[in-house]
């Protein structure tokens, strides 16, 4: 269990790095047809595409960065309607 501020920082960085690596691994093996495929739901117009989930995560991270590390040069937000699979590599 981390006890110092430095240990907590290191654990958070490691957690983020592992999470991002897993997301990138999943996306690297994703069939491109699935990127914008509608999720299987019981109700029409419910759920998000994988593209929408990816852009939501990216944009949420940007909000966190702007509030907690405004000195960093963050990338631009992504538009969920226009985000392509190639953006996942550039906007990490």
As residue ranges, the low-confidence spans are: none
Number of helices: 3
Compressed to H and E, one letter per element, the order equals HHH
Count of domain modules: 1
| C-alpha Rg (nearest Å) | 16 Å
Mean pLDDT: 85
DSSP strand count: 0
Content of β-strand: under 5%
Span of the ends, CA to CA: 29 Å
Secondary-structure class? mainly alpha
Outline the biggest β-sheet.
none
- The helix fraction, in percent, is 40-55%
Assign an overall shape.
globular
Describe it for me?
With 92 residues, the protein is an all-alpha fold. Helix content is 51%, strand content 0%. The protein has 3 helices and no strands. The radius of gyration is 16 Å and the shape is globular. The chain starts with a helix and ends with a helix.
